[in-house]
Write a structure and sequence with these properties.
The protein contains nine helices and eight strands. By secondary structure, it is of the alpha/beta class. 2'-deoxycytidine-5'-monophosphate binds next to α2, α4 and α8.
Length: 235
Amino acid sequence: MLPPVLTIDGPSGSGKGTIVQLVAQKLGWHMLDSGALYRLVAFGSQNNQLSLNNEDDIADYASNLDVEFKLFNVKPVAEKGQHSQELRIILEGNVVGVELRTEATGNAASKVAAMPKVRQALFQRQRDFRQNPGLVADGRDMGTTIFPDAKVKVFLTASAEERAQRRYKQLKDKGISGNLAALLRDINERDERDSQRSASPLKPAEDAVIIDTSDLSIEQVVEQVLAICKKGFDV
Ligand code: DC
């Protein structure tokens, strides 16, 4: 039997990243950040002087993407004698971090993600993350295209204004300055591109549970997702 999968899809800023991490930790399952793969393809292609207008070249780069996701033990948690873990992404031998999360890389990722050949090139790589004891998959098309047979599917949404606010705060916390109006415009443009494209557009799977996170805390969303998992899986 294939390992269980929980898919969590939704637009950027819906709180997916944090929720997925916390839920995966609670369940003790693996995690797939599929957005990071599109960001890596965009970032790496640009570093290798490939034109973002050449779908064949980008798809070829995506098929041969040389990336490793490694968990490192970082701060010791004294009372439990455990270590908290941090995910490091290694692209072509170099650790990549904050450069993957910039607005510029996000916008470039949204362009390469609209290319059907690039999506096809990353299809099997994403499915390979499905391993025991289970997988929490974060993206836009996890429930519709990559894992249509997932037993539990969640779709997170939030208003564009709320998402722009969250993004603004996130950037500020990282010491990156942002402009709220520009962030809102970018979010609207990216939503439009992600939901209008013909290849795997952003939309909830028919059997997904939709949660609007605009007025919910992270803890409340995690609680709701875990309650849905309890019903859907035997966890
Ligand atoms: O979730 P994110 O912001 O890291 O995603 C970066 C871009 O990749 C975003 O524009 C949407 C796109 N993406 C996608 O098309 N399909 C996915 N499964 C994940 C992300």
